[in-house]
Amino acid sequence: xxxxxxxxxxxxxxxxxxxxxxxxxxxxxxxxxxxxxxxxxxxxxxxxxxxxxxxxxxxxxxxxxxxxxxxxxxxxxxxxxxxxxxxxxxxxxxxxxxxxxxxxxxxxxxxxxxxxxxxxxxxxxxxxxxxxxxxxxxxxxxxxxxxxxxxxxxxxxxxxxxxxxxxxxxxxxxxxxxxxxxxxxxxxxxxxxxxxxxxxxxxxxxxxxxxxxxxxxxxxxxxxxx
Length: 226
Fold this sequence. Notes:
single chain, Rossmann fold, 6-stranded mixed beta sheet, 7 helices, alpha/beta
């Protein structure tokens, strides 16, 4: 099996700002290896979140090509892209985006509840496995408001893993947390990578967070720099 999960070739994203054109991402090429933890580090406004959204097919590149396991993802239509994301990618954002009225178990299961009858695995058992893996096995019935910030983000990570994704995309996942809670979240990400074999791409401005990765890339003014 090819050890390259995803390939980006000359990806670019342009925006119109009044009368001028802003190039948020400039001809970025990179390869994500299976089972690797890669961090892209850059300051605010460097284009790292835009690049992550392009890789996650949440945004459309102005130019360039995106391949996932050899398939040209950028050629898929909207319905095909939605299926592609559901089957292959998990997202972790800076904001936890948990539903306050749902407990931990329900929040983890919710992305796949509409597809429960189509799954090849037991959704509830998968959720329990992930919640125990992130160290919250005693908190199944707790609401988000009863958890710390770090615990809420770990629930968000479990939710991102519910679909057995091949790729996790994490956008500043510790940005709202103190150092101790941030370390807990990073340990959960690394544990899931090791035990589930998931590829992780994380973007951050924090060198301490980036240091958890196997590989660190730097972005400045929309370009990867050495």
